[in-house]
Amino acid sequence: MPAWRCHLALGILMLTNVFTFAGRQVVSVLLEPIKQEFQISDGALGLVAGVVFALLFGLLSLPAGRLADRANRRGLIACAMFCWGLATWACGWASGLGALVILRLLTAAAEAGVTPPSLSLVPDYYPIRLRGMVMSLYLIGPYLGTLVALGAGGWVAAHHGWRPAFAAIGIPGMVLAVAVALWVPEPRRLRPVAVGAEEPGAPSIFAALASLWAMPAVRWLVIGSGFSSLMTVAYAMWLPAYLVRIHGLPLAQAGLLVAVVGTLTSLVGGLVSSGVSAALSRRNPAWRLGTPILSLALSIPCAMAVFLWPVGWNLGSVPQAMGFAALFGFVSALWMPAVFTAMSFLVPPDRRALANGLLALSNTWIGFGLGPFVVGLLSDALQPLAGPQALRYALVTTMGFGLVALGGFRRAQPHFPS
């Protein structure tokens, strides 16, 4: 296959990742106007932001990954992406909380057909020696998506209301579905080359999952990845609302500040991740997992500092806490590309999409499902004690879940093949 076709396919698939993540993240900048229009609590906001989406996305990621291991991945991605764009656009027409929940469920179902197949497809375009780099490029999509959501979505919400912001994300998704169908090739699948690979067979999805879960490195990677997502998703989803409530920033400024300070540094961190992993793993491949361990060890104190830094300590109109947000953006972006790359070395190609679905299930159920919801519940529970500062202490408490992720990655490291 010509190199230009591989690069074009990677670019298109990366854009699908950008916009699907923008569809998740745009909710964070819309939490306050949605709360005001529908008159709902922080707990209900966390439900809309995370739980409803996460439950169905996680549940469908496994069958979607299994289907992608055996069917045409390009066709699956194109159909799912079109449905995703249509459902996201329709969120802007929701007449109430119930309608918005149903539309978020439809969005989640469609996105489950995009992410695991794409993660399976991308490594097949390039030789193994480039796998870490191309996975890092694909996985900077969430950081670019956050820029789109907080920058463009925040601007649209500030000037035209929260409803048109969904259309600004959804319509490009339908265009990308056409681009996938026209220009993303379905390459010949490689024979199993990973450590412990078996000859291709057709076991049931439950048997295939059991064989993956029986591998300690896979099991602990999935656990560490899920709790890393809980910390980072809760942080990203509630940071704009935190800046509005606690620091008194206007919504448009909060969204732009998070996009510029946090997301640009995350973009750099995502790009640097493959180089850090390669440098750490030169002597011992198990140290490929040193990257997520380092990432979590530095992310936790940075996140705590963001939410504990005193109000009123500013540089001009910018809270000094955003300096720690910049550091958090960089170091917290290191773990995800390293984890997905490590998983691609652990499992055979005929089960790669299912393994990616397992990671997506963990990241979504634990990360997107519990992260925003836990913060909302804690904020409501702490309201009688902490008053206006309840959201601050809810976020600080939730950042502590990063310690579980750190422990998971430490447990996975000795089982990584050397």
Short synopsis of the structure:
The protein is mainly α and 418 residues long. Helices cover 77% and strands 1% of the residues.
Summarize the biggest pleated sheet.
Answer: 2 strands, antiparallel
Total helix count?
17
User: What does the overall shape look like?
Assistant: globular
**What is the total tally of β strands?**
2
Give an overview of the whole structure:
By secondary structure, the chain is mostly helical. The chain has a single domain, classed as Growth Hormone, Chain: A (Up-down Bundle), CATH 1.20.1250. Helix content is 77%, strand content 1%. Strand 1 (314-315) and strand 2 form a beta hairpin. Helix 10 runs antiparallel to helix 14. Mean pLDDT is 88; it is low at 191-199.
Features:
single chain, Growth Hormone, Chain: A, 418 residues, mainly alpha, two-stranded antiparallel ribbon
Write the layout of secondary structure elements.
Elements lengths: L2 H36 L3 H27 L4 H19 L5 H15 L3 H7 L9 H8 L2 H20 L1 H22 L21 H9 L2 H30 L5 H30 L9 H19 L5 E2 L2 E2 L1 H12 L2 H12 L5 H35 L3 H10 L2 H11 L6
Antiparallel strand pairs: 1-2
Helix pairs in contact: 1-2, 1-7, 1-8, 1-10, 2-4, 2-5, 2-15, 3-4, 3-5, 3-8, 5-15, 6-11, 6-14, 7-8, 7-11, 10-11, 10-14, 10-15, 10-16, 10-17, 11-13, 11-14, 12-13, 12-14, 12-16, 12-17, 15-16
